[in-house]
Specification:
Largest sheet: 8 strands, mixed
Number of strands: 10
Strand order of the largest sheet: 1-2-3-4-5-6-8-7
Helix content: 25-40%
Shape: globular
Length: about 230
């Protein structure tokens, strides 16, 4: 048993800009981000993008506002727009949720990364920026949860250095269907070496001129090599 003799909790995450090399996370703002975010989450790939989300597919720009406005005002989940710094366009969104300042735990969720940034440095850096921000505030646990049937999300959690913790059976009902939930976590004691792996992977020297990675995202030291 570990005693935390000086533990006094942590501060809540704030609506702040998180700046990276490839991406910028901005607090979600309907006026600034609404039109471009709607374009990113709708269109021909909307069904795929929303497959594992509780959110309905927006049928129109005005319909999208019924989701956007309350989410932008929320403090838990705390939503951010994901911006491609090369183009300046909003290409996705993500949030910090299940924020527990007493125990120092929080989670990344409500992730929707549009097709323009899928499988690029932008999405990996978007995850890294948020994780580093939360751990920098003193949080002890950074969660990832997903439908146990969502294989792409489970692969992403593995790639980002999470440890699989197990499955909660019959955990939720989403869109009228049962959801068993897979749980993953990164702890504050693990973040320093996981952070180093992200920094090495995100370095411009790791990419060819067309954006192809030269080395995969890896983390050490660890009991096992974690690769994506």
């Amino acid at each position: 048993m570990t005693y935390l003799s000086n533990w006094n909790g942590v501060a809540r995450p704030e609506q702040t800009v998180l700046e990276g090399r490839y991406t910028r996370l901005e607090p979600l703002d309907p006026a600034r981000h609404g039109d471009e975010l709607y374009e990113a989450v709708s269109g021909s790939e909307a069904v795929r993008l929303h497959q594992w989300l509780a959110d309905p597919i927006p049928s129109s720009r005005s319909d999208f506002d019924s989701w956007l406005v309350p989410k932008a005002a929320s403090t838990d989940p705390l939503f951010f727009a994901v911006i491609d710094k090369r183009t300046g366009r909003v290409e996705g969104r993500q949030s910090i949720l299940d924020i527990n300042t007493d125990f120092g735990s929080a989670e990344i969720g409500h992730i929707l990364w549009g097709p323009a940034i899928a499988r690029t440095q932008i999405t990996t850096e978007a995850f890294y920026l948020m994780a580093d921000y939360v751990f920098g505030l003193g949080y002890r646990r950074w969660q990832w949860r997903c439908n146990a049937l969502n294989a792409p999300s489970r692969r992403a959690a593995h790639r980002f250095g999470y440890t699989f913790e197990g499955i909660f059976r019959n955990h939720m009902v989403v869109k009228g269907r049962n959801r068993d939930t897979a749980w993953f976590s990164i702890l504050d004691t693990e973040w320093p070496w996981i952070k180093s792996g992200f920094q090495a992977w995100l370095d411009p020297s790791n990419f060819e001129s067309d954006g192809t990675e030269r080395s995969k995202l890896t983390f050490a030291p660890a009991t096992e090599s974690v690769e994506g």
